[in-house]
Amino acid sequence: MGKHVNTNLRETKLVRINEKQYIFDIDKELKRHNFQKILSFYLFKIPVKDVSSLSIEFSDYGWNKYNYRKLLTLMKESLIATLPKSKSKLTKDNILFYPLKSSEDVEMVLNSVKEENSSAYIIFKLTSTSKLESIFRHIRNSFAHGNFYIDSKRNYHLEDYYHDKYTSKILLNEKTLLAWIDVITKGPKDL
Q: What are residue 100's DSSP bridge partners?
């Protein structure tokens, strides 16, 4: 699986948007401890109900609809804290958090904000009752369907599709994904 090859529409879009080709070796990634931790949590132990039989739901950690806003705030703070130091001063301009209505197009939104200027972005269509659960479903689907790659800076480019149309595009650094695991699993007890 060494090289990311343009064999279908999705991979062609992925490379065309970035106008680069990335070498992505999944066998090598599977040996990395951080990748294993991320894959285990976001794919198998995903905290969203009815997604995996191995799920440990948000409520099991003490999170519920009454404190989801606090969790989202903590996740955004973690994202900002894990940005490279040179970009952490430009947080409002460099992070795009954009929940979409069903009629909006993920690619159009991403193109309008010039993807290459973003340090991180989460552009997604709502798939369930909350923004939080929707984000995690899209991340899970990206891993489950192999619609992701990791660049040399350990940024995870995650994409989700439905009938060959993007339902989400997410760019997060590995440190952010790991920090979110810690925030969620610690629960709201110490807030």
A: 125
